[in-house]
Amino acid sequence: MKKINILRILFIIILSTITFFALTNPKKVETNLLKAFFSNGAQDEILVELSGKYSSNINVLFESENLELLEKAEEHFEEQIDKKGFIVEKNDTVKTLEFYKKYKNNLLSYTDYKLLKNGDFDKIYENAVNNLYNPFGFYLLPVEEDPFMLFTDFVSALGGTGISSTINGKYYEIINMKVDDNLALSPSLMNKEVAKLVELQKMYNTKDLNVYLTGAPVHAYYASESSMNEINWICIISTIFVGGLILWYFRSLKILIPVLLSLASGMGMGFCVTSLLFSSIHILTFVFSTTLIGICVDYSFHYLMECNLKKIIKSLTVSMISTVFALLILSFSGIELLKQIAVFTSAGLVTVYLFVILFYQLLPPQTSKHIFNLKFDKRILIVIFLIIAAGAFKIKFNDDIRTMYKPSKAMLNAEKLYQTVTNKNSNTSFIIVEGESLEKILQKEEQIGQKLSNNNVNYYSLSRFVPSIKRQKESQDLVKLLYNKKLSDFGDFLTKNDIEKLKEIPPAVIGENSFQNLPQLKEFVVDKNHSLMVVYDMQNPEIISDIRDVRYINLPLEISNGIKNVRIAVLKILLPIYFILYLILGFIFTFRNAHKIILPSVLASLFAISAVSLFEPLNLFHILAVFLITGFGLDYSVFRFNGSKNSNDAVFISCITTVFSFSLLALTSFRLISSLGFVLAVGLLSSYILSIALISKDSSLTTESK
Description:
With 706 residues, the chain is of the alpha+beta class. It is 62% helix and 8% strand. The chain is built from 28 helices and twelve strands. The two termini are 41 Å apart.
């Protein structure tokens, strides 16, 4: 048996073995963007957990001027929700109110507590009387049980109790849901379930009733639907373009079969190796790693246009090694996402390289009639350097990941309405409170809450739903004092028997064992020594700086800082990458020629970044694109420097097809994809032009056809 056949069999066995182990040990696809950048240490885990906790919620908001219609629609809508995929978090209002009624004298809103603490009993009395004479006023308890509306004020201040909100004559009801953990692991399944909610929304939207959907999963659904439609069209157009180019050049579409087989083997092996080495694969790994398609197609074109392995083996090998090295250095960044991209793309490239050199020799020789020999005037370098210089002065960075997605006007209006109805600002931050026991935690939360309320900062915490025992006893004393001073003024509404009964305040308090079934316990308690306070639109965190064992977390700011750290880490390894590539090329082609080969990639990367900076701030994904530009660019330069005449054709076709595809991506509405597509299209086109201008001897622009 020939040596080449043994190598082919060995290749198939290795691929089959790796595929078997990968498929029998499936790994989940991680869709949480934060896990791409935060994976080191307990603090990162807290950030990811907090983000996940508040990014898996879906809210259904009902709006109508007819309360009866509103409540019926909400009830029927909830019945049709798939309870396997979504966990409805609507509180049992009746059960909750019954629980609170037992301890009504222990519960005071912060406003009432502050008034009583300051001895302003007249204000409490005035508010109660005004409500009694107000035809639209309401009491959750009869007047003889809650004459000063203390219980009503406490419950109303909580919000989300099932009581309809009223704004400008319209009633609002909300169904809060969480996405089931198993469903969240599958973006495709989650989108299908969200699609059902969207269909329900359309069904219930009428002239007299409006239904709005808000929450991160809904945004993800619309973004993915829009992106998938656009990408499907891009794939169709790109396929037609590439197929037409191949048909025109080779006079046959048969070569698409080996090209697709090599591509499938590379993508499949990249996935399998990554799956074996990591506990999960982040979805962004697929986004960036699919760009290796361009390089993989390069290898196929170079062979098919030469049909002689000996003539291209050196160039093909150098191109593969240099690109793999450029990508593998990403694994030293310490960032999980970059490690995955490095492994996925490197394994894929090596696999395609081996597939081409082992199996393409079985193909019959290909014939073509067109030979390209494009050459550019070196004066184009002046234009490139001018743009690099102009862009360098405008370089700014924006690390806010929210700029990568722009919601539709309808979704934006729905989110604003939800914030208005719930009185919650979208700028959410968190306070982690540490204490020796739950009672100590609650006392510390109340201390923090007092500072927040005094500064008009809206917040939610466990202590708002269940006061500490210390606060409950203090509230009992304040209520007793109020009753002794002001109950007699309610002569027109209360009998002597009512007054005497009200003054008999039982000493019972809500202990830890009493509220174990309250949903808020699970919502706010992290563990036995930590709780979570949710804060909205906090401008000055310094107001709580004097309280010990408290950590303030501004999630948007923390995320931006985390992405900034990743960006800086990536920038730091760029120079080492170019230096290592220079050494590799120097040992192979001599150091005198190495700079000629690597210079087009370096200049193309600078040009692409500078061109983008002229229009918008740079982000992490623009910087990551530099690695891909370097990999593609070296491929162009190596084959131009060391390839045969037919290599010019392969480089040209490879470049034009890749740039065409990325240019279409730049037109998509999802900014993350469009920004990546734009910088890659600009970078690869300039890399191709620079490889001609700096490596080709002839500087005239001509096109030859044979």
